[in-house]
Amino acid sequence: MLPVVALVGRPNVGKSTLFNYLTRTRDALVADFPGLTRDRQYGRVRRGQKDYFVVDTGGIVETELGIDEQAMRQVSYALEEADLILLLVDARHGLNAGDEAIAERLRKTGKPVLLVVNKIDRADLAVVAGEFYALGLGEPHPISASHAIGIDTLLDELEAKLSAPEEPEMTEESPGIRIAVVGRPNVGKSTLVNRILGEERVVVYDQPGTTRDSVYIPFERHGKAYTLIDTAGIRRRGRVSETIEKFSVIKALQAIETAHVVIFLIDAREGVTDQDANLLGMVLEIGRGLIIGLNKWDGLSPDQKDNVRRQIDLKLPFLDFAEKHYISALHGTGVGNLLDTVEAIYEASTRDLSASRLTKILQDALVAHQPPLVRGRRIKLKYAHQGGQNPPVIVIHGNQTEEVPGAYKRYLINVFRDTLDIQGTPIKLEFRSSENPFKGKRNILSARQVRKRRRLIRHKKKT
What we know:
This protein has about 475 residues and is of the alpha/beta class. The protein is built from 13 helices and 19 strands. A 6-stranded mixed beta sheet has the order 2-3-1-6-7-8, with helices on both faces. Strands 10-11-9-12-13-14 form a 6-stranded mixed beta sheet, sandwiched between helices. A 3-stranded mixed beta sheet has the order 17-18-19. The longest helix is centred in the last third of the chain and has 16 residues. The radius of gyration is 27 Å and the shape is flat.
């Protein structure tokens, strides 16, 4: 499971600046997920071989009675989810009572905390370090988030702590094909899980937020092993209630990361919402096989069904590869075919693809439609090979590959998808430019060129 790092501190100490810097270093979607407390934002960080979630939180405000409990409640959920906490303080303003109160609160969590002293570009490092040692959180880590100073050193320390050995989680050992059931609250996720299992294994109640955590349920079907993952619904911002907010968004995102295939449920009566599009964007960025389940379909009129289909085409054009099932989890309509589709998607996303076949498909695509010219030079794509599975990754080598436009990338993805018959899973392309072997080397003349140059020199001397 991907670890979680929470950024906490007083307002205006640079938490969001650091968050933006970290998430900008990867190609994944960064989204302010609706349905969270108003100042929590989730992103994903990829740095070399390291991969983890980072959570930006709202500023913790100190009052005459101590830390404002209302503000602290907004942060407490992120702290519960976190494996590591970064406490940011402001070097320009120095240590104050608010930092001390927050540090005291964080020590009580029992979780590892790194003290980060931000905005050191105009500060005396020796003075700053000595001052913040008083918080009792170990050695301060000076950085400037806005100028990218000291961040690599901080991340080395952070990732070393995240890599510390831990007890293995049972969810990582979940057998067979792992299927995450994801969606907004009250769209029927738990009902669908129970329908697939044929028994009441998870709590079903007509109230949003019944599921508080991701529930992993192993089962077998026709001798094949599966694990169903029922996840907590992610709410819209305007519908968050303090009494039912205590669920883990991170657990839902980790379930998507752990899964091989995601069944994303949409309430067909409500249609496709912006919240659905946001969540599906994260599923796409993580790169899992995808089934879009339109639940409660049997209660719609023909006109309503046509309207939902139009909404899918208009709001989700980036998911044209996804399989769509029109179902009723309550009555079982259309549910019987889901696992067959799951198996087909799993096979497509984990298929071994030979380099010779991928290169042949690439060459045929180039013949049918050449890459564009860049500053008068044609982009050259030479050969391709497989770079990963779940999702399928195809690595293409050539010259000027960094100049390949988005439209041509989509063209190549469609060619690979149609030729290889890969449906239900995204395909990711990685482009690598060949190094010029003579770059930086002296020009080496052939023997014929040397003789010709010598004749010219002798001729000039005679004349």
